[in-house]
Model the fold of this input.
Amino acid sequence: MTDDITRDVPSPDTPGSFAERPRATSRRGFLRALGLGGTIAALPRLVVACGSDSVTEPSNGIPGTGEPLLIDFASGDVAILQLASVIEQIEAEFYARVVAAFATSNITASEQTVFTEIRDHELGHRAFLDGTLGADAAVPATVTFRGVNFSDRAAVLTAARAVEDLGIETYNGAAQYLTGPDTLLAIAKIVSVEGRHSSTIRDLQEPKNGAFSPAASDDAWRPTKAAASIQSYLVDKLGLVNVPTTFVEGPKGGG
Amino acid sequence: MTVLDSLRLLQVIEYLQSDLYTRGLAAVGFIPTADSEVFKTLSAQQAVHISTLSLLLTTRLGTPVVKPTFDFTGKGAVPGFAFAAGQYETFRMLSQAFEDLGVRAYKGQMQAFQADKQALTYALAMHSVEGRHAAEVRRIRGRKGWITGSSADDLPAFAKAIYAGEDVATQGSVNIGSALASNGGVDAATQAFDEPLTTAQVTAIITPFIA
Done:
């Protein structure tokens, strides 16, 4: 499984970059602290696709052509953290590729600083979710960004905006299924920073014209709706099972 | 805090933000043309937040907040501020302070909404927008869109309380600062997660601004 590792970005699995990564015992302790107690479900043993790409050749595989990547909502808060983990893997990998392409791109020096910082934040989010889920509940994904020209500023901004907004829509909708107060707070801590990111990306695209915040409320999408969009960034076949049938809409509806 | 208490607290903050923008936009020539779309957007969206919170309150048989009268000098914390010529930078500082406050105040009430999924989802949908607003006002001031450590930047001293406790680099059991050792380190770790403020912290911050 190499596809979530990009050239110059240490993966959380790289020894050294994550030397203090908590293992199963402390993870359970933390999940207990999150109020999840003994609810860590034994997830189906997953076989994760390992495409033909190498570390130096990021995947641009066809979405949905890989192995199943299942998230079972019967596992409770763990499932929401797994969905979050998939989002953060997509975001971290996206910005890692943006940064890796700086040498050949027309992104300005000051914008490079912004993109590098956003990448670092997404790596931080990914590290949090990796460490919190632990190895047993990890959902390593093979991400893909077909058709994105990472050397082209306009294309990168358009793609970044879509990725950030998808994260916000997913978190805002999925949070209602959380039962642990600390898990809810953790997700809230992340999603406002995604709002800051989206605003920043939009401001780079369209400075000072109101694009930074297209509406008074952001969207909140039910997990199945979010998954349909998330799938376009995954070679894996994303499958959500046991998703609650009820969903409470946000102010904009349509979730 | 009940759900109603939480909604009312957030509504006071929305009124604080909204009144700042309404008065700034009403002062002819105060906001430079280049920034006017930003503040028109902020003003319009805070007004919607106020009405959305009123709707949530009334459908729960609660009473919306009566708009307070605000004193934007903060009873001396922002001496002489009166939306006057030459005070535009102070206005933008107040905007940054109140938007970052909004992000943290909403976050601090999320757990109170957890059993009320509609209130929670509505609050989350406005909370991420507060994050958008905060980033934009920070950026038009030439700042990063995110908060580093517990830095109040160049804001007046009252704002220190708005950023207190933002310098968290360990989330749950995960030391994010260590995980990012070669990718931004502790600074990036603190930027990547916004922290909540308690009701007591928020109340203490906004009280001087209520006349």
